[in-house]
């Protein structure tokens, strides 16, 4: 206790929020995404057994974006106890705001060779609507991605949390919000391409959007964004903020009566979660090459929740695992047995809520705990949270040790 | 031309004898060249043949009058009928020339026919003819109308004829006649009349189209009166479609009012229970088509119990297998029931195909009641409104009057206590859920009559149904009713101003704002139990 | 320290305000210039026509230990709801000190001003350790940004260790709070209240579910707290009330039926009627 804990540099604390094993795994993953993937995709010839196909890059890149959304969902649902059925909206908004930039980058290469995006020419519009101003600047687009969904989330969240709307009520209202937004975006007059949305992108920052190099860079960016999201989320849930957040989830009135205003805590994590979704959406659109209002469908938002549930709520890494399991299964089913996909997904919803309350991660922990014959195996996930505090650094446990010594 | 009508009138006034056949000499000139000649021929025919002229003139209006050699015949598909005797000619002779008509002749024939029908002994025919004339009569028909007015006894028909008379006399050179006509027309609710009166208040060049200022003023008053009546009818129409939408929302939400409102179970598969009901209706239609084709019109009555039972059965399965294990965990229930809904959608796709199926309205649900000239209330909507009221009443009495309803209320208020006094709480849960599901099935049967029936139909109702229940206040039947009414009427009136999609968005936003203000819904429960 | 009518002059802890006129107050600070910490006047609360509180008037002096008794439905819990901002009264005044209008403040604001509340059913954070429970309750800046970067310093660690000892849970510091016994949970909740350093503690049946020994110890703890803090204890256990020894208020049908020393109240004919029936 020589140095005041408050002066510990933030970056060090960020580093301490994960243990060595987790950092090792993250390092391995980063090496794979930033080095191995580009080499195996760009340098190895297609015939090589180690060559990674474009299909692989696109699919995995897409799922990396979904994983970011899943972590964002886990933050508010797993830790904050708020089940949002509107995260598809923020994802799509991020995609749309960045999509505006991509549409402008098409330039005169569209079907109508106009400065305006094709759908506007089709609607016989003569000039860009006001909210498209500046959309041809990359930085402005990035700024919008960060600000617009966050602002919408903030305003909506402020009113919802202030009125103490919680639980299922909140879920249903977020669902209504997404649904209303979807209807709005389906209209041509809204200025976002109606039914068809944005597609036929050509370039990003002047580079061809379909070039293998661009794909690899986008893939690497998605991987980095996922790592950043995970570390940030980990830091949050192991901080005092995280403990207050779970406290709000478990006993909101107690939190209020000890002087915290849950409104601002929920609002912070809600807005942050929305922002993460928007970033994921912005990375998703150039990789997939299309964004349309069906991304805001009610079903999509609920599916996000099942990724988290399958992986294991309140574990962060579970969200990533869940996103991969469900989406890999989806792409396998829709190719091989399209008629069974809904059966599978439906069963997944039922099974994971009935028999796997802690998801795959919980199952893994239970199996391991069963092997080492530990007693309190029922509360795995929560113990994880408890352990997190221990990991969070010496400062917190040092006085505790002192206290123990004093009482002994 | 006036002569024709005078002759017709004269003949009709003196109906005495009926001829068995028409003199072919009267028929021949109908085939003559030139419209004027044909009009003369029509006049002569009406004068000479009277009642028997009707089928011939009708055939002529249809363009199926023809010449077979010298004989005038009516061509009816394969058959050829002698115009003179109205009997079929066997074997059918070869048609040599058809008798063509142009627009002028068609108009002439139409009014002649209307005039003939105006004096029919059948009230229905007279009524129809009067209707036709009331939406377009001109000055030439005035004498005929005068006669008809003199002989007509039925007040409804008489009112129509007066309207037609006013329309005809509006062009009169006598200002007094015009004034009374304009005043009379002010009582009309027909949008066409507006076009008739409009010009009277306009200026043509520098001078008024209507020279008499009193008539002009009266026309203005009449126009305003008619517009007011039209606006009223339009609003009544909107209110009716609003109530109709409300009844649909209510049917969709009533089941949810039990499962969510009373039991607190978030059933995201509710829309699919509606789908089960709708497919039951389709199944019953198919069964009736195959086995009782002559009773086909009544398949819907059979679909009601079948839809209820089918959906209730699915509900029992859902409750027993999944929902029962998730009581008290609403968010998990939400996800699990969403899974069930995906499952049911795929089952429907596999069993019935991904395409929508055709469910036809029975004959007795077709058509409607014309309340005002521009307001038709369709029967299927009226029946569905009635049906929803009946379902609501049934549900209310089950919940409030029956023993089971008492048990349900007991269990929802205090589960352990209800268990202690011997209420079989588990069975009650299942039964209550089955009831809610069954009512959703009834909603589905009703929806099959006005909406598409397909595997995805349920998804469209889930947001709306939840909005109704949440807006009404959880656990409140009355709340659900008012919320459905409010949402339905508001949506329809908004649609009038903004279009359907924007109206829907606005309504959703209004609900979201409203719930921020009153999280407990319209009918909030107050007191110490609210928080828990 | 047995007496509820404790004199403030003995107590160096009361920093803000003296009995003199013309004192200065920072906004939001507790003004105890009239030695009254809580002032309820004519509070009425009704739910769907049922009057939970009926023109309730009550004053608690600074440093006082007050017991509130009354049959079920007398309005004890509703009264606490009003004081802590959970329920807004239909009419009436509720002041914390001389200046702070409780009817206009939210729950966190009221908690922040220094009113701590223990619920009838112990509410603690069951998925947090005992240590964390106390850490979260500790008096500190409770805004979002602060908690994002907050770290425990040694002074705070000492505070928690001290409280752990007071509530005798030092050995359980790292256990999940949900695994504690009922009595221990009650103590933990009291410990959380202490960590808040409140001026006024509202305790709803604090010894329910405790063993006799635990009850006795709780009583001792409360007696040491009185003076430094003001306490309002709602209790059914008459032996415990007797042990605490302060002034007793009897609530009945939402208003005060009797007030005074326990023996006087117990002798009151109306009180006997309410409790025993006719």
UniProtKB/TrEMBL annotation, chain A:
The keyword Secreted does not apply. InterPro entries: ABC_transp_permease (IPR001851), ABC_transptr_urea_perm_UrtC (IPR017778), LivM-like (IPR043428). Its main location: membrane. Residues 375-408 are annotated as: Disordered. The chain crosses the membrane at residues 23-44, 50-69, 76-98, 138-161, 168-186, 216-237, 263-284, 304-328, 340-364. The keyword Membrane applies. It is found in: Cell membrane. Residues 393-408 have a biased composition (Low complexity). One of its GO terms (cellular component) is plasma membrane. One of its GO terms (molecular function) is branched-chain amino acid transmembrane transporter activity. Keywords: Cell membrane, Membrane, Transmembrane, Transmembrane helix. Residues 380-390 have a biased composition (Basic and acidic residues). Pfam families: BPD_transp_2. It is a multi-pass membrane protein. NCBIfam families: urea_trans_UrtC. This is Leucine/isoleucine/valine transporter permease subunit. It comes from Accumulibacter regalis.
UniProtKB/TrEMBL annotation, chain B:
It is found in: Cell membrane. Its main location: membrane. It comes from the Bacteria. Gene3D superfamilies: Leucine-rich Repeat Variant (1.25.10.10). The keyword Transmembrane applies. Residues 1-20 form the signal peptide. The chain crosses the membrane at residues 245-266, 298-318, 330-348, 382-399, 466-485, 497-515. NCBIfam families: urea_trans_UrtB (TIGR03409). PANTHER family: ABC TRANSPORTER PERMEASE PROTEIN, BRANCHED-CHAIN AMINO ACID TRANSPORT SYSTEM PERMEASE PROTEIN LIVH. This is LIV-I protein H.
From TrEMBL, chain C:
Keywords: ATP-binding, Hydrolase, Nucleotide-binding, Transport. Residues 38-278 form the ABC transporter domain. GO terms for cellular component: plasma membrane. Its EC number is 3.6.3.-. One of its GO terms (molecular function) is ATP binding. InterPro entries: ABC_AA/LPS_Transport, ABC_transporter-like_ATP-bd, ABC_transptr_urea_ATP-bd_UrtD, BCA_ABC_TP_C, P-loop_NTPase. It is an enzyme of class 3 (hydrolase). SUPFAM superfamilies: P-loop containing nucleoside triphosphate hydrolases (SSF52540). NCBIfam families: urea_trans_UrtD. This is Lipopolysaccharide export system ATP-binding protein LptB. It comes from Accumulibacter regalis. The gene is lptB_3.
């Amino acid at each position: 206790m020589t140095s005041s804990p408050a002066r510990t540099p933030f970056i060090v604390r960020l580093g301490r929020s994960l243990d060595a094993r987790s950092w090792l795994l993250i390092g391995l993953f980063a090496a794979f995404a930033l080095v191995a993937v580009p080499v195996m995709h760009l340098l190895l010839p297609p015939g090589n057994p180690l060559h990674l196909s474009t299909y692989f890059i696109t699919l995995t890149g897409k799922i990396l974006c979904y994983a970011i959304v899943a972590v964002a969902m886990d933050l508010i649902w797993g830790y904050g106890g708020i089940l949002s059925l509107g995260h598809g909206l923020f994802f799509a908004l991020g995609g749309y705001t960045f999509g505006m930039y991509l549409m402008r980058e098409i330039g005169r290469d569209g079907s109508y060779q106009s400065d305006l995006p094709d759908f506007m020419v089709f609607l016989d519009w003569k000039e860009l609507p006001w909210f498209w101003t500046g959309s041809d600047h990359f930085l402005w687009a990035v700024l919008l991605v960060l600000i617009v969904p966050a602002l919408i989330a903030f305003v909506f969240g402020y009113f919802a949390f202030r009125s103490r709307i919680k639980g299922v009520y909140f879920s249903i209202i977020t669902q209504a919000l997404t649904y209303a937004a979807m209807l709005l975006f389906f209209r041509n007059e809204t200025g976002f391409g109606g039914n068809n949305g944005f597609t036929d992108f050509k370039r990003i920052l002047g580079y061809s959007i379909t070039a293998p190099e661009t794909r690899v860079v986008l893939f690497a960016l998605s991987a980095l964004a996922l790592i950043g999201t995970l570390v940030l989320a980990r830091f949050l849930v192991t901080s005092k903020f995280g403990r207050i957040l779970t406290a709000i989830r478990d006993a909101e009135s107690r939190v209020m009566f000890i002087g915290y205003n849950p409104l601002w805590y929920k609002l912070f994590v809600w807005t942050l979660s929305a922002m993460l979704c928007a970033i994921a959406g912005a990375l998703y659109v150039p990789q997939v090459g299309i964004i349309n209002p069906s991304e805001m469908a009610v079903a999509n938002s609920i599916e996000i929740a099942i990724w988290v549930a399958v992986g294991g709520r309140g574990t962060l890494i579970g969200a990533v695992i869940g996103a991969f399991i469900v989406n890999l299964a989806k792409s396998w089913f829709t190719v091989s047995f399209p008629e069974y996909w809904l059966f599978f997904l439906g069963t997944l919803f039922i099974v994971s809520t009935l028999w796997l309350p802690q998801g795959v991660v919980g199952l893994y922990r239970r199996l391991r705990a069963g092997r080492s014959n530990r007693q309190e195996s029922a509360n795995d996930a929560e113990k994880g949270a408890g352990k997190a505090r221990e990991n969070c650094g010496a400062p917190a446990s040092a006085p505790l040790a002192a206290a123990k010594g004093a009482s002994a | 031309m006036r002569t024709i009508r005078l002759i017709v009138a004269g003949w009709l006034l003196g109906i005495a004898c009926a001829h068995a056949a028409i003199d072919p000499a009267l028929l021949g000139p109908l085939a003559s060249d030139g419209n004027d000649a044909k009009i003369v021929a029509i006049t002569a025919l009406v004068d000479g043949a009277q009642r028997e002229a009707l089928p011939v003139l009708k055939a002529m209006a249809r363009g199926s009058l023809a010449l077979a050699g010298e004989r005038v015949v009516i061509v009816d598909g394969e058959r050829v009928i002698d115009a003179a005797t109205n009997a079929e000619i066997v074997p059918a002779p070869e048609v040599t020339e058809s008798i063509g008509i142009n627009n002028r002749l068609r108009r002439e024939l139409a009014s002649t026919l209307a005039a003939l029908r105006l004096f029919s002994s059948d009230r229905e025919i007279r009524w129809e003819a009067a209707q036709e004339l009331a939406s377009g009569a001109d000055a030439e028909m005035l004498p005929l109308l005068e006669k008809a007015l003199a002989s007509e006894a039925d007040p409804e028909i008489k009112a129509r004829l007066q309207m037609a008379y006013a329309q005809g006399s509006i062009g009169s050179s006598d200002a007094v006649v015009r004034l009374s006509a304009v005043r009379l027309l002010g009582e009309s609710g027909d949008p066409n009349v507006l076009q008739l009166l409009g010009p009277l208040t306009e200026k043509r060049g520098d001078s008024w189209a209507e020279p008499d200022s009193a008539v002009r003023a009266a026309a203005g008053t009449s126009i305003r009166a008619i517009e007011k009546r039209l606006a009223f009818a339009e609003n009544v129409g909107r209110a009716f479609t609003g109530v109709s939408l409300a009844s649909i929302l209510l049917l969709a939400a009533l089941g949810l009012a039990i499962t969510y409102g009373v039991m607190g179970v978030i059933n995201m598969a509710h829309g699919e229970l509606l789908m089960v009901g709708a497919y039951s209706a389709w199944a019953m239609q198919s069964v009736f088509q195959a086995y009782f084709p002559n009773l086909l019109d009544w398949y819907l009555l059979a679909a009601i119990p079948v839809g209820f039972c089918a959906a209730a059965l699915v509900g029992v399965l859902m409750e027993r297998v999944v929902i029962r294990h998730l009581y008290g965990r609403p968010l998990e229930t939400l996800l699990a029931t969403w899974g069930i809904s995906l499952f049911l959608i795929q089952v429907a796709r596999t069993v019935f195909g991904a395409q929508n199926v055709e469910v036809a309205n029975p004959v007795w649900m077709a058509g409607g009641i014309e309340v005002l000239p521009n307001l038709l209330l369709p029967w299927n909507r009226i029946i569905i409104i009635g049906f929803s009221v009946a379902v609501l009443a049934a549900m209310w009495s089950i919940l409030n009057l029956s023993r089971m309803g008492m048990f349900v209320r007991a269990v929802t208020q205090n589960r352990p206590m209800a268990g202690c006094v011997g209420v079989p709480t588990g069975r009650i849960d299942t039964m209550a859920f089955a009831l809610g599901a069954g009512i959703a099935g009834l909603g589905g049967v009703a929806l099959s009559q006005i909406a598409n029936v397909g595997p995805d139909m349920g998804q469209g109702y889930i947001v709306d149904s939840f909005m109704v229940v949440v807006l009404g206040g959880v656990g409140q039947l009355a709340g659900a009713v008012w919320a459905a009414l409010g949402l339905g009427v508001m949506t329809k009136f908004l649609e009038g101003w903004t279009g359907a999609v924007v109206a829907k968005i606005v309504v959703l936003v209004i609900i979201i704002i409203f719930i921020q203000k009153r999280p407990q819904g319209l009918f909030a429960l107050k007191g110490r139990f609210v928080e828990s | 320290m047995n007496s509820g009518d404790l004199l403030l002059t003995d107590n160096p802890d009361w920093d803000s305000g003296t009995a003199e006129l013309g004192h200065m107050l920072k906004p939001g600070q507790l003004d105890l210039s009239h030695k009254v910490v809580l002032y309820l006047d004519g509070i009425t609360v009704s739910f769907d026509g049922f009057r939970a509180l009926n023109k309730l008037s009550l004053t608690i002096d600074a440093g006082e230990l007050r017991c509130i008794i009354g049959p079920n439905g007398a309005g004890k819990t509703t009264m606490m709801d009003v004081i802590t901002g959970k329920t807004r009264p239909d009419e009436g005044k509720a002041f914390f000190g001389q200046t702070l209008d409780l009817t206009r403040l939210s729950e966190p604001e009221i908690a922040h001003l220094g009113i701590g509340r223990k619920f009838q059913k112990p509410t603690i954070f069951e998925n947090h350790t005992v240590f964390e429970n106390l850490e979260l309750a500790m008096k500190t800046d409770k805004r979002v940004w602060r908690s994002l970067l907050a770290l425990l310093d040694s002074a705070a660690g000492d505070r928690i260790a001290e409280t752990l000892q007071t509530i005798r849970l030092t050995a359980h510091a790292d256990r999940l709070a949900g695994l504690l016994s009922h009595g221990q949970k009650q103590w933990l909740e009291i410990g959380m209240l202490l960590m808040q350093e409140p001026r006024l503690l509202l305790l709803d049946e604090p010894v329910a579910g405790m063993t006799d020994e635990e009850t006795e110890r709780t009583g001792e703890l409360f007696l040491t707290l009185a003076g430094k803090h003001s306490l309002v204890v709602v209790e059914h256990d008459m032996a415990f009330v007797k042990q605490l020894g302060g002034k007793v208020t009897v609530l009945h049908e939402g208003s005060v039926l009797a007030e005074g020393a326990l023996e006087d109240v117990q002798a009151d004919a109306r009180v006997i009627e309410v409790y025993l029936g006719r």
